[in-house]
Design a protein that fits this description.
The structure holds two protein chains of two kinds. Chain A has helices at 6-23, 33-48, 68-91, 99-118, 122-140, 147-178, 183-192, 197-214, 222-229, 232-257, 259-264, 266-284, 290-311, 314-345, 356-359, 361-374, 381-396, 402-430, 444-462, 465-475, 481-490, and strands at 57-59, 64-66. Chain A is mainly alpha-helical. Chain A has a domain at 267-491. Chain B folds into two domains: 1-176 and 231-257, no CATH class; 278-513, no CATH class. Chain B has helices at residues 3-20, 26-49, 82-101, 109-128, 132-153, 159-188, 195-204, 209-226, 235-242, 245-255, 257-270, 272-276, 279-298, 303-324, 327-358, 369-372, 374-387, 394-407, 411-436, 453-471, 474-491, 504-509, and strands at 56-57, 60-69, 74-80. In chain B, strands 1-2-3 form a three-stranded antiparallel sheet. In chain B, helix 3 (82-101) packs antiparallel against helix 4 and helix 3 crosses helix 21 (474-491). The chains are: A mainly alpha, B mainly alpha.
Chain lengths: 491, 513
């Protein structure tokens, strides 16, 4: 049997099983469903490590592809989902109704992400994205009693629907001119249509739809509001999973679907990356709400990741993959701490951090490490990720001097970000007038997630060799040879 | 295991131990920090003493190499040659003195000592690294604690502004130099950050002129910002004025030399053609440091700002020595780096002591202090004299070598620099001595106390070092010179006429013994 989509089937099965178990579970025990979800996801994650990471083949007439890159992303999404589920278990007492559905929706969003990592056809791109986005409409507005949560859901719904509309329109235009939606056939069609304005416009719309997912300029407006209003586990999953799914699709589309046009639009991607970095970092400076701050920081990070995409080389792609691994642990740590603190204070203002080092040294250290890693300071994961991204861009800089400008913007962005990330650290250790100094209790599931993310951040920062090997192997399954050869020839 | 690993390992180990000590055991925390930095000083002294007899591989002694991130060509590789051996000794001495001076910290001691130990480990690590990634990694590890320490334990009304200023300037400088280092790695095609491998590869396949002309200015200005090259120096006096004593000592004394060390070790030998177009610019900017910042120092009414500006001015001599690209000049630059490290640590340490006694460093308010504190006053006069280049202190040896070395290449610049060093330096230093230490008894300061036995130790250590290397500069120059000759062979590749060997005789006649 062709087992390329077995993980997706298992995850969908888990989601359905959770819905059914929910029916027969008395209300008092419903919070325990999270443990079932976590156990199920862990089992599937463990199973994924027994899958062959060297082969690649397609199924459903080329709709889905199974290759090292897809498997890398699937493992990434599963790990992120496990960590997010731990956060959700901790958060569950703040969700008044339907906690069972919350877990199963998380699992269905995960299924969408798994499909996205394998999507090899524009139709599949759209379907998997819709599976992710529609579940997130519900997940963002899950705290019915909080207006902010409803507002976040509605905003995400309206802008998400708009971007889906653009995307479908773009797919229609591409199909109308190229007569195919499957990536390997599209590759040939893209060469004959490389001057066709209708085809290019369609492609631009598709890329716009993906840029909405990754919150890149000029499709970033929704991110801060939605991040701020959503329940914390949703925000974490949105920032990690949904963004990574967008990048997985973008990479596959650009590298296997339309490599010649991607090469041509290199400058567009460079410009998008530069503006996204500046926008995210500049807007983050005055923020007081921690989730909103991380919303803007996630826009800035999308910009850094776009550097790796714009390079379109193996080094660039593996840098993106590596960066995501570090980013996952960092964000779980940050959102985990925010989730625990906002439970007690019902606020997400930066002032709730004052006195945290006395209330809980563990949480204070976790959040500090997360901020230091986000700021890209050694020896944590964020530094090595940024290092890889910068070096991949410098490899191409002699051919395309615009990269020097992009790198300048990137380092200006990093300097700005040090300012606001350290504002958070400052509030933790040296904030004035702590109001409440009662110790903070950290439940076991959240503690596990936080400890895992600390270990992950330090491990990826100090001993990056093994993870780098995995991401290089995964990135090698995308065809970037043409570009690399060209670069090598010019040397 | 190489003794160098112990030198940088002890402070990190101390940091780890401090992390585990509960925060109210203040004495224990301080003792651990002192022991950590003392042990690393002991090892550094023994490495310095055994330097001559140790065997060298590829020009470097006491090497150790452990593969780290093989896929990116990065390894833990440490080693010393004549250029960094003196700097490491200086760094270890200053680190111990700075730890001893941290007595003034009275709040959150645990965090302070933790950061201080990380900073010391990072500094020592940066100067022993033979891998460019490791070199940058350790520097960044030392830099971040600096910002935090100034922001939290700093003093004065401008504290927040100074923290902001120094963070932005130095992060920008560090990142620009990081881009330069990565560009060097990527465009050399050596697939290794290891300095020895990279050097060998570049000797065989030199970088294209176009890449050199992009990478060299990145390194020059990235490193330049870190060393307060004029006109990117404004962070330095402000930052040092606001920093806690130990931080100012370590940063001004040692960490700041990272950029200069990078220029000498990486930029000049590996990018000779890129460098040759910039030498005149460096010389002119160096003059900006010496004359302009000296002039600014003359106008200062705050002792810390005065020392801060004069420390920026001294950087000009090092830049001038590097720009000369002669054996005498570059050797002199390295000697000034070492001498200035001791001097800056001594001056900021004394200022810190004075501030804790008087709560002000305004020159107009102070006066007649020599009678009240004979030891501190004498030490301060010695520091001021060393600062204006009095023979007998190590600074004189270095500055004289720099001026001899650069005379041929830049006669006008050197002429103005001599004037700047002797006249301007003497004016502000002597004026400060007169106003602060001499003059009528001020009843205001009847309460101030001279340093006791223990607080004297760091000052004595630094003065002894300054005088030792001042009277016997051969201890440094005989180690530095052969390494400089090797580096200059690469840096002067495109001008074979340069008589690097001919000046050999000259240097030994300048040994002042």
């Amino acid at each position: 049997m062709n087992s390329s989509y077995i993980l997706e089937l298992l995850v969908c099965g888990l989601g359905l099983a959770l819905l059914l178990i929910d029916l027969w579970t008395p209300t008092v025990h419903k919070q325990k469903l999270g443990y079932i979800a976590a156990a199920g996801l862990l089992t599937i994650l463990g199973f994924s490590f027994f899958m062959d990471a060297t082969v690649s083949y397609t199924s459903f007439n080329g709709m889905l592809v199974y290759d090292p890159l897809a498997l890398f992303f699937k493992r990434f999404f599963l790990s992120a989902a496990v960590l997010v589920t731990f956060l959700a278990i901790d958060f569950s007492d703040r969700i008044s109704h339907g906690i069972g559905e919350y877990y199963s929706l998380l699992v269905f969003a995960l299924a969408g992400m798994l499909f996205a990592s394998s999507a090899n056809d524009l139709i599949m791109v759209f379907v998997s994205l819709e599976l992710i986005t529609v579940t997130f409409y519900v997940l963002t507005s899950f705290q019915h009693k909080k207006t902010a949560s409803i507002e976040a859901g509605v905003k995400y719904l309206i802008l998400g629907a708009l971007s889906s509309g653009f995307m479908v329109y773009g797919i229609a235009l591409v199909f109308g001119t190229a007569n195919t939606t499957e990536f390997s056939a599209l590759k040939a069609a893209a060469i004959t249509n490389s001057e066709n304005p209708i085809f290019l416009m369609g492609l631009l719309f598709v890329i716009g739809g993906l840029a909405f997912k990754i919150a890149a300029f000029p499709f970033q407006l929704w991110a801060p509001d939605v991040y701020q209003g959503s329940p914390v586990p949703t925000t974490a999953f949105l920032a990690i999973g949904s963004k990574a799914a967008g990048f997985a699709l973008l990479l596959r589309l650009l590298c296997t679907g339309v490599p010649n046009i991607a090469e041509h639009w290199n400058t567009l991607l460079i410009g998008m990356a530069g503006v996204t970095i500046l926008y995210g970092n500049l807007c983050a400076i005055p923020q007081r709400n921690l989730k909103r701050l991380l919303g803007y920081s996630s826009i800035a990070n999308a910009g850094y990741l776009l550097i790796g995409v714009s390079v379109l080389s193996q080094a660039g792609i593996s840098a993106v993959l590596y960066y995501f691994c570090g980013y996952m642990f960092t964000l779980i740590a940050a959102f985990g701490v925010i989730s625990i603190l906002s439970k007690q204070n019902d606020s997400e203002d930066i002032s709730i951090l004052v006195g945290l080092n006395q209330r809980s040294p563990f949480l204070a250290a976790t959040l500090t490490l997360a901020m230091v890693s986000l700021a890209g300071i050694p020896p944590l994961a964020g530094f090595f990720g940024k290092f890889l991204l910068l070096s991949s861009a410098l490899e191409r800089a002699p051919l395309h001097p615009a990269y020097y400008a992009l790198l300048l913007i990137a380092i200006i962005g990093v300097v700005i970000s040090i300012y606001y990330y350290f504002g958070v650290v400052r509030a933790i250790y040296w904030g004035k007038d702590p109001g409440d100094l009662s110790p903070v209790q950290v439940q076991m599931p959240a503690r596990i997630a936080l400890v895992l993310s600390i270990v992950g951040m330090i491990y990826l920062g100090l001993l990056p060799d093994r993870a780098l090997k995995q991401s290089q192997r995964a990135s090698s399954s995308l065809p970037t040879s043409a570009i690399v050869h060209k670069a090598a020839a010019a040397h | 295991m190489s003794p160098l690993t112990y030198i940088l390992g002890f402070p990190f180990l101390a940091a780890l131990v401090i992390l585990l000590i509960p925060k109210n055991y203040r004495f224990l925390i301080r003792s651990v920090a002192l022991v950590g930095s003392f042990l690393s000083l002991v090892v550094a002294v023994s490495v310095f003493a055994n330097f001559g007899s140790a065997p060298a591989i590829d020009g470097f002694k006491f090497q150790q190499m452990v593969p780290w991130i093989e896929r990116a060509g990065i390894s833990y590789h440490v080693g010393v040659d004549g250029i960094n051996i003196g700097i490491i000794l200086m760094a270890a001495v200053v680190a111990f003195a700075a730890t001893a001076m941290a007595r003034e910290i009275k709040s959150n001691e645990k965090e302070f000592y933790l950061l201080l130990m990380v900073m010391e480990g990072g500094i020592l690590g940066a100067f022993v690294s033979l891998d460019l990634f490791l070199f940058y990694f350790f520097h960044e590890l030392a830099l971040v604690p600096t910002f935090i320490m100034i922001g939290i334990w700093g003093r004065g009304p401008d504290k927040n502004y100074a923290t902001f200023n120094i963070t932005i300037y130095l992060s920008l400088g560090a990142l620009i130099s990081l881009i330069g280092l990565i560009a060097l790695y990527v465009q050399s095609g050596a697939n290794s950050f290891d300095l020895i491998v990279l050097t060998r590869h570049i000797q065989q396949n030199p970088l294209t002129l176009a890449s050199q002309q992009v990478i060299f200015p990145l390194l020059l200005f990235g490193f330049g910002i870190l060393v307060s090259l004029w006109p990117f120096h404004t962070w330095a006096p402000l930052g040092y004025g606001a920093a806690p004593t130990s931080t100012a000592m370590l940063h001004a004394g040692v960490l700041k030399k990272f950029g200069l060390y990078g220029l000498i070790r990486v930029a000049m030998p590996l990018l000779p053609e890129g460098a040759s177009t910039w030498l005149n610019v460096i010389a002119i900017l160096a003059l900006g440091n010496i004359v302009f910042c000296g002039w600014v120092a003359m106008r200062q009414r705050d002792l810390n700002l005065l020392i801060g500006n004069s420390s920026v001015a001294h950087m000009g001599f090092i830049f001038l020595g590097i720009a000369s690209l002669t054996t005498v000049g570059v050797t002199g630059a390295v000697v000034v780096m070492i001498a200035h490290g001791f001097l800056a640590a001594l001056a900021f340490g004394l200022n810190g002591y004075l501030y804790n006694q008087t709560k002000t460093l305004n020159i107009d308010e102070l006066g007649g202090l020599l009678k009240k504190m004979p030891f501190i006053g004498t030490a301060m006069i010695m520091a001021m004299m060393a600062g204006c280049g009095l023979p007998g202190f190590a600074n004189f040896a270095g500055e004289a070598l720099v001026l001899f070395g650069s005379w041929k290449a830049f006669p006008v610049v050197t002429g103005i620099a001599i004037w700047g060093a002797l006249v301007i330096g003497a004016v502000y230093m002597l004026r400060a001595v007169r106003n602060v230490l001499h003059g009528p008894d001020d009843p205001h300061w009847n309460e101030v106390k001279d340093a006791g036995l223990w607080p004297k130790i760091p000052f004595v250590l630094l003065i002894v070092a300054l005088l030792t290397f001042g009277f016997v500069p051969r201890l440094l120059t005989e180690k530095i010179e052969p390494a400089v000759v090797e580096l200059l062979k690469m840096a002067n590749k495109n001008k074979p006429a340069n008589p690097t060997v001919a000046v050999h005789g000259q240097i030994s006649s300048e040994n002042f013994q």
